[in-house]
Design a protein that fits this description.
Blueprint lengths: L2 H16 L1 H9 L11 E8 L5 E9 L2 E13 L2 E6 L3 E4 L2 H13 L8 E2 L9 E7 L11 E7 L6 H14 L1
Parallel strand pairs: 6-8
Antiparallel strand pairs: 1-2, 1-7, 2-3, 3-4, 3-5, 7-8
Helix pairs in contact: 3-4
Length: 171
């Protein structure tokens, strides 16, 4: 991996991990620190411009694969409600895990820059993928990686992963 991208990624990730606001947000939506979970885990966050968020967490620990999903609303119709839906948790099959892993591999997730600002929207929707594995990635030699995109086009592979996760959560 290009050392400049790796260094930039490390600097942004260090800032994210020390950001108290992000930490408070994860606490508010009942999301754990990925590094405290066993196995390989990916969190997919869709953060709307008005505080509405969808949260999906995919975890593979030994042979057990789970997908949890949740929705959080900061406000509806300009009324602050600060509401969290009940977390739904389902068991997935290995073929579903492999589909998501293949999609992550297609975008070279572990090698991707943390941020790409290709769409400049003032009130865009944020798409964040966080990943953690007990085994260090062979390319980056890191256990944790995060990427974020603002309003990626529906046709991008990055956005396609979120569509697939949402489909799996609804099955």
């Amino acid at each position: 991996m290009d050392s400049d991208i790796l260094q930039a990624n490390d600097s942004i990730i260090a800032k994210i991990k020390s950001d108290k606001e992000y930490s408070k947000f994860l606490t508010k939506i009942n999301e754990p620190n990925l590094e405290n979970l066993e196995g390989e885990t990916y969190r997919f966050l869709i953060i709307g411009p008005w505080g509405n968020s969808s949260i999906y967490r995919l975890n593979k620990n030994a042979d057990k694969i789970t997908l949890s999903s949740n929705k959080y609303w900061q406000e509806i119709n300009d009324i602050q409600i600060d509401s969290l839906e009940k977390i739904e948790k389902i068991n997935l099959k290995i073929k579903d895990w492999n589909k998501i892993k293949n999609l992550l591999n297609e975008i070279n997730y572990w090698k991707s820059p943390v941020r790409i600002n290709d769409n400049h929207y003032l009130d865009g929707t944020g798409f964040i993928i966080e990943g953690y594995s007990n085994l260090k990635n062979e390319c980056t030699n890191r256990n944790y990686h995060a990427t974020s995109r603002i309003s990626p086009k529906d046709t991008t592979k990055y956005r396609g992963i979120f569509k697939k996760i949402d489909q799996l959560a609804k099955e």
